[in-house]
Structure formats: C-alpha cells, structure tokens
Amino acid sequence: MANITRRSVELPKTAIEALRRGDLIRAITAVRREQQVGFKEAKERVEHYIAGQPALKKKMEKVLVNAQHTFIRWMIGVAIIAAGIALVVAWKL
Fold it and tell me: What is the mean pLDDT of the chain?
C-alpha cells in the first residue's frame, strides 16, 4: 500500500464505470479481476482512488446513506408485518 499513497492509482475502466454508478462492490471486483490482486489490495486501491476524487467521494457517501435508509425501511416493514402476525396469532388463541 505504501506505493499506492505515493502515486495516483489507475483503475480499470470497468471499475471507474462501476464507481460512477455507485457500485463499490463491482468496482472492487473489477480491480481484483483485471489487476490480479487480492481483495484487500483491490479495496485499498479503490478507496485511494475515491479519496482523490472529491465529487466521487461525495457521491459514494450519498450511496452509503441511501443504502442505510433503505435497510432501515425494510427492517421497519418486517417488524410491522411480524407484529401483525403476532397479533393475529394471539387473537386466535
């Protein structure tokens, strides 16, 4: 990783396209496949690339927040359904 911090990181075109779509996982996978490095090294390269691109970094932060909100909405929905089922079962007993 020491070499990465001293120079700019070059990512494959497919990884950059994935990042522009907000898809961090596909970007890491593309780096692993095309640059033949392990997961940790690929993740570090992608993170370093993002850190050097303020607009991309802001977009990735928004994607993360959106994913967290979506997860919370799903969990609330599951909890409401589970509570409804529990009430129906308790009512029939």
Answer: 90
